Amino acid sequence: MNLYIDMGGTYTRYQIDNDNMVVVKDRDIISLLSDIIKKYPQIKQVNISFAGQVKDNIILSAPNINIKNLDLHSYFPNIKFRVENDLNCAVLAESNYWKSGDIVALYIGTGIGAGVISGGRLINGFSNGAGEIGHIPFRQAPFLCGCGKDNCVELFSSGSAILKWAEYLNMDFKTLEELPPNLYNQFLEGILYSTSILITLFNPQILVLGGGVIEKNSFLIDYIQDNISQYAFGSNLKDLEIVQTKLDNASLEGCKLFKK
Ligand SMILES: [Zn+2]
Questions:
Q1: Which residues are placed with Cβ below 5 angstroms of ligand 1, an ion?
Q2: Where exactly does CATH 3.30.420.40 map onto the chain?
């Protein structure tokens, strides 16, 4: 029996083998795992898609979740864990769906992050931190990112950015269309900035966009298509397809594809 978990910045989704998916909010991973394993002691393997930095199945840190250097295997010694960054999981599922070995997934939800498959290979980087596009410098913000810096693009172009700006300005907006005009424009610019960096660096065949903010604002796909030539390296745009994800839970689907 296998357990698959997608731990996001806001929600945790899990599924046992091919059973129905369960969604929980604000759950601590250790207590959630204890509850599930108590109920299903037959579970031998747990694959986790995690919204943060992961290396060798250890959860190192997460800008949007309060966790540091967590080795789940030490809590549950009889279970095998395979933990991977959520965007690495998502791009694996997207690669599978679009049948492309040169694909970049840019997901904009609580945070903004990317996963890259180039030449059929997942690009992990030396410490498994490749693709952390949300934390490239963009503009100075008057508050800090979860990573400790104050100039990340994630502070302008993400779901959490909208809430942080509302709190800072003491205003009551929650969605992209409610943003004051200057923040709205910066939000869009940050998205063009992020997508153009990915397109210029990795020259993908397909750029697939997903995540809660894209789901609610699918006009962003057309917006990127119409404006990207001002930002990205021209010849990399020639045969590029920019698409919206067709998958409901790419990270969860992707973590199933990792071998033990
Ligand atoms: Zn950051």
A1: 135, 145, 147, 149, 152
A2: 2-86+251-257, 88-248
